[in-house]
Input
Amino acid sequence: MITKATQPTITTNSAGVPPAPPEALPKAVWVEIAKAQLQKHCLSGRFQISLAALDRLECEGKSIEMVLACFNCEQDSVYVGDTVRITGGLQAFFGFNPDLTNSNAPFVQIDIAPPVPLFALGRTVITPAALERLTELGQCPADFIRRHQYGDWSDMTIFDSVENAKSAKNDDRVFSSYFLTTDRTDDAPRVLVITEHDRSVTTVLLPSDY
Output
């Protein structure tokens, strides 16, 4: 169960920068995630998700439960004021409201991540088999490369999405996988996009090329 909530005041920042005036902030509508849902994932504090993020999850056939599972995956340390990529083009802001007490003071806000490139691609190449398959299906390689670089890993598992977010941040190898048709079964046709850890080259290929 979820209930609508107003956006809490953010009074602290990891860089010590004063918050923007209220009139400069976007008028996002936030939805409070029920405590019962948080407890299933051993989470505490207040978790909120924007209506825009909820709409995206619905379009992709995903649930809040899948997003909450991200927070149980191994991640780097986070601090108050940090914003972390999670999954499916979403991000989580970790805040603290000193006006509230005990477990209500820390909060997490889940929203759509801004469309910014997360890493350099280097030289981009495509295998002959991948080019032939994409051409047959009327698909453009550049579309998948952009999704890969901008952190849209919505066709991947929660665990793999979190791993990609960490790899993008830590200059490790980024490995993305995308469906080529509306079929979402395990045997559905896919295309892979891989950027090497040194950011020298990004390759578009089929699983059979790997």
User: Anything to note?
Assistant: The chain has two domains: 2-112, 123-209. Strands lie at 2-5, 30-33, 46-50, 83-85, 90-96, 106-112, 123-126, 174-179, 190-195, 201-205.
